[in-house]
Design a protein that fits this description.
The protein is built from 21 helices and 12 strands. By secondary structure, the chain is α+β, with helices and mostly antiparallel strands. A 5-stranded mixed beta barrel has the order 4-5-12-7-6. Strands 1-2 form a two-stranded antiparallel ribbon. Strands 8-9 form a two-stranded antiparallel ribbon. Helix 8 packs parallel to helix 11, helix 11 packs antiparallel against helix 13 and helix 17 packs antiparallel against helix 19. It is globular. Bound molecules: flavin-adenine dinucleotide.
């Protein structure tokens, strides 16, 4: 089934779970009315569904052939990229001063989700360009900004982001690419990078590489890294393209998925003439790169949501079509269906309880991840747009706390959801022509790039949970508890045990958080042993509360198709409550066990040399 952008669902989540409406009430987004929001996202959804989605499967089959240092993108991709960029989609959140639209990051987040649902191999390129724009805007000199920002923002040129070398993956500080001062303010770069997304391609006439390297004499580790802008073609003072820079793509990788996104081995300075320009200060490259990485981490989280959404849509459609088996005779609802078709007629598999369980798991995990990602984007908006410094700082801290959760949870569930999507299809899921397998193959990389999910979990417990002595995370948990109280106060039987399960989940998160904060000081190895489980616990509580907040909002609006923001078959009141209840009773219900693993099971990890060998 072709992907259809779930616009109304997206808007409902933005407004009622992610805090868009609250931010608006606090004075943000004043220039963006509801009609504008609908129009922008509606048009993005149309482009994603009608133009990009049809390119996805053919692009996967065609790949990106590499010959003589050049990459060819699949048929139709160049034209689609040209039209996409011409419509201004690359600059949605970029500063108007440089040609962007200065729309909220939260709006761009929704757009990023849709581009990547339609064709993730297409969506990943612009994601990196947008991240590069952010870094250049924050750290570039006026000259660099003038020369490169307008064309990066318009999409006329694309950007890349380059950290990885064979010996320097998660440990970025181990990288060896060198930069020498040239005497004219520029640098000469020498070295190589691996796994570079869109390092070479034919979508744009110039490619602007953002490369981490080490200036001679710089300290070891990340403290000695600097960020350089390295254009494929040098740019003259008149803005025209000049000579080809001394850099090349040496080869491309053959991958499990994401086939239409070229992943390149890049080589710099074969002839000693690779010109690079410093972005920010020498040895402060990680600060500039972190600006890029935080944007890109949220964007990769959104890729997780994107694939999960596409896989869910496809599985639900298939479950309505595929007839197999007869209903279980003891189930009243199933007996009704049997009567409809006669006892011997096969029913659509959506009638089977276990299939319904899978579809609900897919739907609710996707929506929870979407809410967490959008909430991160709204926090980023607050960090940039809020009127007073304290509110900006609060936004920045909230975004910092949520970013690793948005990245790792959304991408973990993306693989889980895509796997369930295959399961719903049965044997046909394993056959490429259904497309379910492509979702599964494409989703897998999102758990690895932009910092593996293991690294995200470590970031969460060692840097983010301790922010302001734990005050940031405690404040967040208190906010979640207010949603739990609201569910309890609503006293609506349709919510089932939602309030009770979410109360247990938030209590479990609070308990595990205090344990982590204490363990970081006394037993950091024990805290690390539970990092990934803690992140899942965090997301289970947060996601459950956000879905409950959506359900409460739908209930307040009283309703179904006529309600503002409704329309998706889950955006109505009963659908929203059903999803919130399913998540709370089946997924957030696991929170107490997750908290026990965090607080009590470290030794089972630390003392297991006998099973896998000593470290
Ligand atoms: C398709 C694709 C596209 C990519 N695009 C880009 C790109 O555009 N730019 C770019 O710079 N890079 C890119 N990468 C590289 C990617 O970011 C790295 O692969 C990733 O950061 C992991 O590094 P690594 O592969 O060296 O794995 P390693 O760092 O060797 O990690 C292997 C395993 O060990 C774990 N591990 C490592 N160190 C620690 C630690 N300190 N604590 C706990 N666990 C640890 C990891 O979590 C992982 O599970 C891309 C990779 C792929 C496959």
């Amino acid at each position: 089934m072709a992907y259809q952008a779930p616009i109304e669902d997206i808007i409902f989540t933005l407004k009622h779970a992610a805090g868009f409406a609250g931010a608006r009430a606090d004075g943000l987004y004043q220039d963006l009315g509801d009609d504008d929001l609908d129009a922008v996202l509606g048009e993005a959804g149309r482009f994603a569904s009608e133009v990009l989605a049809p390119l996805n499967a053919p692009g996967d089959r065609y790949g990106t052939p590499f010959r003589d240092g050049e990459v060819t993108t699949p048929p139709g991709w160049k034209e689609a990229y040209r039209d996409w960029a011409a419509a201004g989609w690359n600059g949605v959140a970029a500063p108007a001063e440089w040609g962007g639209q200065s729309l909220p990051r939260a709006v761009n987040a929704a757009c990023i989700e849709m581009w990547n649902s339609a064709a993730m191999a297409f969506g990943i390129g612009p994601v990196l360009t947008m991240a590069a724009v952010d870094s250049l805007t924050a750290f570039g000199t006026e000259d660099l900004k003038k020369t490169y920002l307008p064309k990066l923002i318009s999409g006329e040129w694309m950007g890349t982001m380059q950290l990885t070398e064979p010996q320097a993956g998660s440990d970025v500080g181990a990288l060896r690419t060198r930069a020498g001062r040239a005497g004219d303010g520029s640098y000469r770069i020498a070295g190589s990078k691996i796994f570079i997304t869109y390092g070479e391609h034919d979508l744009t006439e110039n490619i602007i590489h953002f490369v981490l390297a080490r200036v001679a004499g710089a300290p070891d580790g990340t403290k000695g890294l600097s960020l350089f802008l390295i254009p494929k073609f040098l740019v003259g003072p008149d803005g025209k393209l000049g000579a080809r820079n001394d850099l090349r793509a040496n080869s491309i990788e053959h991958k499990l998925g994401l086939h239409a996104s070229p992943t390149c081995h890049m080589v710099y300075g074969d002839n000693g003439g690779c010109v690079g320009y410093l972005v920010g200060e020498e040895n402060r490259g990680m600060t500039a790169m972190f600006t890029m990485m935080n944007e890109a981490r949220l964007a990769v989280g959104l890729q997780g949501v994107a694939i999960a959404e596409a896989a869910t849509q496809q599985a639900i459609a298939y479950a309505h079509e595929r007839r197999q088996g007869r209903p279980h005779p003891t189930l009243p609802r199933m007996r009704g269906r049997e009567r409809e078709g006669g006892p011997s007629e096969a029913v659509p598999i959506i009638a089977h309880v276990d299939v319904r369980r899978m579809l609900l798991t897919m739907r609710s995990l996707t929506r929870a991840a979407r809410a967490i990602c959008y909430a991160t984007a709204v926090a980023l908006d607050r960090s940039h747009l809020a009127g007073d410094p304290a509110a900006r700082k609060a936004g920045q801290e909230r975004a910092a706390l949520l970013t690793p959760v948005a990245k790792a949870f959304s991408t973990d569930i993306s693989s889980e959801v895509a796997s369930l999507g295959i399961q719903v299809h049965g044997g046909m899921g394993f056959i490429e022509e259904t497309g379910a397998a492509q979702h599964y193959r494409d989703a897998r990389i999102t758990q690895i790039y932009e910092g593996t999910n293991g690294i995200q979990a470590i970031d969460l417990i060692t840097r983010k949970v301790p922010l302001s002595g734990g005050a940031v995370v405690r404040g967040y948990i208190e906010e979640l508890r207010r949603t739990v109280d609201a569910v309890t106060a609503a006293n609506d039987p349709a919510f089932g045990a939602t309030g009770v399960r979410l109360a247990e989940a938030t209590d479990s998160l609070a308990r595990a958080t205090e344990w982590v904060l204490a363990a970081l000081a006394t037993r950091p190895d024990a805290a690390l042993a539970g990092a990934t489980t803690y992140l899942r616990l965090f997301a289970s509580a947060a996601g459950g509360c956000m879905l409950a907040a959506e359900a409460l909002a739908a209930a307040r609006q009283g309703g179904d198709e006529s309600a503002e923001g409704s329309g998706d078959n889950g955006a109505d009141k009963s659908g929203r409550i059903a999803i919130a209840r399913f998540f709370a009773e089946n997924l957030a219900a696991q929170a107490p066990a997750l908290a026990r693993i965090v607080t009590e099971s470290a030794e089972s990890v630390l003392a297991a040399d006998a099973a896998i060998g000593a470290a």
